[in-house]
Amino acid sequence: MNRATRRIQSDIGVALKKAGLPPLKWYDLLWSLERHGGQLRPYELAQDTIFEQSNLSHLSKRLAAEGLVEFVEFDSDRRGKVLKVTEKGRDLRKRMWSIYGPMLHERLRAFGKVDGWQAFIEAEQDQASPD
Questions:
Q1: Which of 16, 44, 104, 126 has the smallest CB count inside 10 Å?
Q2: Max Cα distance, the chain (Å)
Q3: Residues 111, 12: contact at Cβ < 8 Å?
Q4: CB neighbours (10 Å) of residue 33?
Q5: Which of residues 99 and 119 earns the better pLDDT score?
């Protein structure tokens, strides 16, 4: 299962790169924000995603530098910040999904077939075998 997940993520990452789009982890952060009304506090975002706090902090700053998210003051606590997705971030996430979504659905449908797992295992063995 882990190998299948890594393979699918890798293939999607390659397709995104070929399309001139950023890494899949950018999608995960943007989608998490959108699913929660467009904004979350950093610790909430860390709880909702698979990112460690330090990785999330670095990624958030990178996306902010690209204008995809912005840090805004939290209404009830001026010391706290909220990470908010921008319109540019929403647009990018949608463009990424146009590649990510169909590929993900295609790959997952294959596992729903009777021989889906067997076909995956055989493909993995073929790639692992030296020529």
A1: 126
A2: 62
A3: no
A4: 28
A5: 99
- Nearest-10 crossing angle of helices 87-112, 24-35: 110
pLDDT tens string 11-68:
999 999 999 999 999 999 999 999 999 989 888 888 888 888 888 889 999 999 999 9
Tokens of 113: 């077939």
Burial classification of residue 52, based on how many CB atoms lie within 10 Å of its CB (0-12 exposed, 13-18 middle, 19 or more buried) = exposed
**Stated pTM of the model:** 0.79
* Burial class, 1, CB count within 10 angstroms (exposed 0-12 / middle 13-18 / buried 19+): exposed
